[in-house]
């Protein structure tokens, strides 16, 4: 069955399930938004209304999350996710390359999509990307220890279901994140496998290096899921511009949303920090 799924993805990629199109608003050049793990298209609720006067904004729920299907045969690998994204975008029959914006897990999927389909994407914007490389490939012992700690924490979350669900539920209620943060029985399998197969095991650095369009990386100075050492790897690439937003964590809060809108709408380069 695993071999057949691999062959089907390569030969019949458009047979992959279609994702839920949570929003399709505005007119003009197209922007496609991909949210992060344990979330939904609601991630961009504070961003899209600021862009619809100039752009057609399309927001998708990722495979297994929000209103999208959760196929029982899927292993929620990056290939599975990207195949579903490609199938959905193909169904939209877009005439011109689009701007692709991804948050968290969505940014990793966006980088793979842009690397695989270079003619489809005009610009790539990665928001709060949890980029890691295998600890054994990291020379700096401090960075290696930090990345190892992240990976152990993710393993703990996906192997301790009751703890993870209870913690997420408390965070949802405490910070009023009902529409943004969701780990439940309905998406637990998608959460666990996406975490294991797309975030813990990833080749995002090489995907970014393969992309041939401009890449903007927008992230918060307080982002608890970013390993500074691995960010230094990508900021040295000539086609990548970093945009650091002070006093913002991993979520697309007001400050980060403002900077994201500026980056998308103006393509502004070389902006390092927001006061």
Automatic annotation (TrEMBL):
The Gene Ontology terms for molecular function here are: catalytic activity
Q: Which Pfam families match?
A: Abhydrolase_1 (PF00561)
- GO cellular-component terms in the record? membrane
Q: Which domain of life is it from?
A: Bacteria
Q: What is the name of this protein? A: Pimeloyl-ACP methyl ester carboxylesterase
Where does the AB hydrolase-1 domain start and stop, copy by copy? 29-177
Q: Which InterPro entries match?
A: AB_hydrolase_1, AB_hydrolase_fold, AB_hydrolase_sf
Native organism: Rhodoglobus vestalii
